[in-house]
From TrEMBL, chains A, B:
Belongs to the ROK (NagC/XylR) family. This is ROK family protein. It comes from Oscillibacter hominis.
């Protein structure tokens, strides 16, 4: 058995996972304010111990998914939590002495989908998560591919030169157009341009009530402005996915994140149509399966648990 | 020792390569018209035998780089030569009975650079070749990564949505802007817009005398129109390379093809400046080395020879 820990931007989660990837027991708590890494390590060890409970003796290793960069047993940095060069493995083991494996959270999610989700049985998988940004993870022949450590920054491929500025420093990054936040921004712009749109009724004109599903909802009710937004969003999403398919030609490309729960006919089907038509393999050769990620919010913790198995 | 064969669009080349990747002996002839695959197999076997000469008994395997897609011992199709589903391994072995490994030519070039060129000693390499199109090959931990078989179509990532139509079916593909042909087209367009440009003098106004080096040459002599073309070219080249670095974060990204022979300060240095500034790893983490490919036209035959070693 393996323990998986998912350090999210909002929640901490620990889970006990068996050989088949089944999540047997979980512990979850809000991240809250993290000022002291030693304290975080102690909390994580406590949660892991609680998730393992009476099975602790059977646990072979602990995997930890971190929203940032890791190297060996060290968290190099994280995006949301102020941590830089934290020797997390050592800190954690002072509380719970088991082999510890650190990984990037998007990589862990991809590993989870590879072993027991949308990629089960495949040899190469690319998993993308449409959220605030676009996370990406790649698993080839059972191993996370990370290059020099930061591979998979799929959200930061430019799809619109000179386009919307991105905090990363470039302009026109994919995640400015095809993430949930990108869709939200485009929906808001459509509202500003179309005072007659149903989007106003649905949101009450409030930015806080606008989310990744709003445009799809209004489009289903026939709103023209919303339809146009969805069309634009799908084009951008498909443009980036086709790029990934042409570069990596994986057996499976899994799409996760809240937006991936949109109805098949509204999102996945039109995206697939564009990718199938535009990808290089359309000229012959096997086609990448573009599918919905299956593990939802559990992908991270399951994948983290599998870190020990794949290294 | 290993035999490598490079089936190019213009020439056929066979070479004998030792364990260290040194090319000991080569045979080269023009491709000519290929109507019969059996005849091509016989020619290739003859060239291989000639390259091996008295060392034939020491040859462990034959690798073959093909401009197209392969699967096992079969050439699925090639772009320039009319071949579809050709059982090349069987055909070749009926003339020279050695283990045969087929690979894509861009993959072979990457493998050559990985083992004994720009990537010597590294763990992950992406090699791109700026020619008629942009070829791409990836080698991770000594193995060619090919996904479902057609990975590495880096030239067909869209960098300019709605841009120049590409024969692949998409619009705005990277190779329409950053290949040698793309540069040639942009140079010609600059000539049409600038009758006063030095480009007219250098080329005598003839399309045939225009090549990937023309704009760089005129720019060095101070021609404004040519400078603008070079600037645009470098921006597009760097945009795609930064995308690749963000996605794959390889230890080495090697640039090959005729254009890569431009002076360091005209091409590689400005490209590197943009990539270093724009890549995600600029925020921390190790940086990809963006370098010139070192093996030139030999990369394909050396890499093909190494196919047997890496499988």
């Amino acid at each position: 058995m393996y323990l998986g820990i998912d350090i999210g931007g909002t929640n901490l989660k620990a889970g006990l996972v068996d050989e088949s990837g089944t999540l047997l027991r979980t512990r979850k708590e809000p991240l809250g304010r993290v000022s002291d890494p030693e304290e975080l390590a102690a909390r994580l060890a406590g949660m892991a111990r609680a998730a393992a409970a009476e099975d602790l003796a059977q646990v072979q290793s602990v995997g930890m998914g971190v929203p940032g960069a890791v190297e060996g047993g060290t968290i190099v940095y994280t995006c949301n939590i102020p941590m830089k060069n934290i020797p997390m493995e050592r800190m954690f083991r002072s509380h719970l002495d088991l082999p510890v494996h650190l990984g990037n959270d998007a990589d862990c999610a991809a590993l989870g989908e590879y072993h027991c989700g949308a990629g089960k049985g495949c040899r190469s998988l690319v998993a993308i998560t449409l959220g605030t940004g676009i996370g990406g993870g790649m698993v080839f022949d059972g191993k996370i591919y990370e290059g020099l450590g930061m591979a998979g920054e799929v959200g930061h491929m430019v799809v619109e030169p000179g386009g919307v500025p991105c905090p990363c420093g470039r302009r026109g990054c994919w995640e400015q157009y095809a993430s949930a936040s990108g869709l939200r921004r485009m929906t808001w712009e459509a509202m500003e341009a179309h005072p007659e749109s149903l989007l106003w009724t649905i949101t009450g004109g409030k930015w806080e009530r606008l989310n990744g599903g709003t445009a799809f909802k209004a489009a289903r009710r026939g709103d023209e402005a919303a339809r146009a937004v969805c069309g634009t969003y799908i084009r951008y999403l498909a443009q980036g996915i086709t790029n990934l398919v042409n570069l990596l030609h994986p057996e499976v490309l899994a799409i996760g994140g809240g937006i991936s729960n949109e109805r098949e006919e509204s999102l996945l089907r039109p995206v697939r149509e564009i990718v199938d038509r535009e990808c290089y393999a359309s000229h012959g050769g096997r086609k990448t399966r573009v599918v919905k990620a299956l593990l939802g919010n559990d992908a991270g913790v399951i994948g983290a648990a599998f870190l020990g198995r794949s290294r």
